[in-house]
Design a protein that fits this description.
alpha/beta, Alpha-lytic protease prodomain-like, TIM Barrel, three-stranded antiparallel sheet
């Protein structure tokens, strides 16, 4: 099974889908505002006039959302290294404030009618019809907005959906008030029910004011307030290396979690093993790897200020004490996000034009640091390489990869590209076009599943002649491969088929390092236990295969 990976067209599809949801919200708000205003004036119903006012505010909120989702999908640039997603937080905050302003106005008008002014309400059939139409429209568009918001984790669309879902309940309350007024007309002894319209709208205002905590939170985070902690940190959100003992500042930028890192003099490790030895997983502390009997590791390059000869010497001393060998140094960059597949295409690796030059320079510096560590392999995710070789972006990525390969060649190093973002055929063609003898592949079978870029065993056979390092990681396919993430699972519980994977590695003649990755550094005890399980599983499989 070959499934095309998602590149720029996926981002455009996301923007179109979010834009359509926001535009439909604007159109519905215009229609409902006009309808409610006309009927409210004709009937004198505060409930309907209040609904018209709320719909007018919804129109303003919908326009804010429409603007926000158009801007939020713009790629990162020099002025916005994390992209433009933060505007969604600001949009959600603005919409929440608009909702509260509407509630205050309705409460004021209701009190005026209850105690200081008399207004005749006409509970005509038109009044009931407009509220029924409102409920139908609000239900349909709130479902569309919530569905799109959940799919793309859009706070702006979620806040817009909140407006229309509260409209549904408040519309029912208004209908109840109109029914009470009608009863008061039919039965004069129940004249007190003439005030039900205003009382009902007080209840509706209370319902609107009950803003869910998660919407308030996503709006409040727009001010950049951060939480700090010393943790085992994942630099990129799902499919990336981690750092040990780094300081984290964390906030949301729209749908993406952005992590800023302060400096720490201690390098961090990834994990690896060779064909006859099995090593630790991603984000595991050196002491844990040693405790599990892991003889080799991969290192995620620490921050620039810590890539010094002194730190390299100290780290090598620790490796010697533990009897470990370093097999590869991985590069990763600030601004990369793995929030969803389109975001990966927009932010990861050497493909994004706005950050390419700076990242190329840093990758060369990482290679120099690896040389200090005596390591002959550096690796990275290059990003979503365009499938069309005539795309100008394709040639640019080929050129920058050639430059990094040439730098590594001068250091006596090879460059390994980790699989995942592109199908096997695209990756082989890209390596051929780069045309450097020191460019190889770090094969990760789970990434093929997580990205939906191809069946891993078939892909391994296609790229086998270039494979010089591998990862042992497992995953399950997504319902819509290539559009949404698959799910990483403990080794042996996913769709890779680990025995078949090891047998295929033997078939292609691979005898280099195996890597156990289990990307749950936020759960160190569970991670340690599952890596220990992976060690046992691979040991058993290797014994069975022979």
């Amino acid at each position: 099974m070959e499934i095309d990976s998602v590149t720029v067209p996926a981002i455009e599809h996301q923007a179109r889908e979010k834009g359509f949801a926001a535009a439909s919200s604007v159109a519905a708000a215009i229609f409902l505002t006009t309808l409610k205003l006309v009927v409210g004036i004709a009937t004198g119903s505060l409930g309907i006039l209040a609904e018209a006012a709320h719909s007018a505010l919804d129109l303003g909120a919908a326009l804010i959302t429409f603007f926000a989702v158009r801007v939020s999908d713009r790629p990162a640039d020099e002025s916005h290294l994390y992209g433009h997603g933060k505007i969604e937080n600001l949009s959600a905050l603005a919409e929440t404030l608009l909702l509260l302003v509407t509630c205050l106005w309705i409460i004021y008008e209701a009190i005026q009618r209850l105690f200081f002014a008399t207004v005749e309400v006409d509970p005509s059939i038109w009044a009931f019809l407009v509220m029924v139409v409102s409920i139908i429209l609000d239900y349909s568009r709130s479902r569309l907005l919530y569905k799109t918001a959940e799919k793309y984790n859009s706070q702006a669309l979620e806040a817009d959906a909140l407006h229309f879902s509260t409209d549904i309940w408040s519309s029912f309350v208004v209908i109840f008030g109109l029914i009470c007024v009608k009863i008061g007309e039919l039965f004069p002894s129940l004249h007190f029910l003439h005030s039900a319209d205003a009382v009902a709208e007080l209840g509706a205002a209370g319902e609107r004011a009950r803003v869910p905590d998660d919407v308030l939170a996503c709006g409040a985070q727009a001010d950049g307030v951060a939480v700090e902690a010393i943790v085992v940190l994942q630099v990129r959100e799902q499919q990336c290396a981690h750092l040990v003992g780094r300081r984290r500042r964390q906030r949301l930028a729209g749908r993406e979690e952005v992590v800023d890192l302060a400096e720490d003099p201690r390098p961090a490790l990834r994990g690896a093993a060779d064909h006859h030895r099995i090593d630790a997983g991603l984000g595991v502390k050196l002491e844990v790897a040693h405790e599990l009997g892991v003889p080799t590791i991969q290192l995620h390059a620490p921050a620039p200020a810590t890539r010094t000869p002194q730190n390299a010497e100290a780290f090598l001393k620790r490796l010697k004490e533990y009897g470990m060998t370093l097999t590869a140094v991985f590069g990763g960059f600030e601004g990369e996000s793995y929030a969803d597949i389109p975001t990966v295409a927009r932010t990861v690796g050497l493909v994004p034009p706005a950050t390419r030059d700076a990242r190329a320079r840093e990758m060369k510096e990482i290679a120099d640091f690896a040389k200090l560590l005596g390591c002959s392999v550096v690796a990275l995710h290059v990003g979503f390489v365009p499938h069309d070789k005539h795309d100008p972006l394709y040639l640019q990525v080929v050129t920058v990869t050639q430059q990094i390969c040439d730098h590594c060649q001068r250091n006596g190093q090879s460059l390994h590209l980790e699989t995942g973002q592109e199908p096997a055929d695209t990756l082989v063609g890209f390596i051929h076009d780069v045309g450097r003898p020191n460019l190889f592949i770090n094969f990760d079978p789970a990434n093929m599943i997580l990205y939906g870029s191809g069946e891993p065993i078939a892909a391994l056979r296609k790229v086998g002649r270039f494979v010089r390092s591998v990862h042992c990681k497992d995953a399950k396919w997504a319902a819509r491969p290539g559009e949404e993430w698959g799910v990483e699972v403990p080794l042996g519980e996913g769709d890779v088929g680990m025995e078949n994977y090891l047998r295929t590695l033997n078939e292609i003649g691979y005898v280099g390092p195996l890597t156990i990755e289990r990307e749950i550094p936020q759960e160190p005890e569970r991670q340690k236990a599952e890596i220990a399980h992976a060690v046992r599983l691979l040991t058993e499989l290797k014994a069975r295969i022979g």
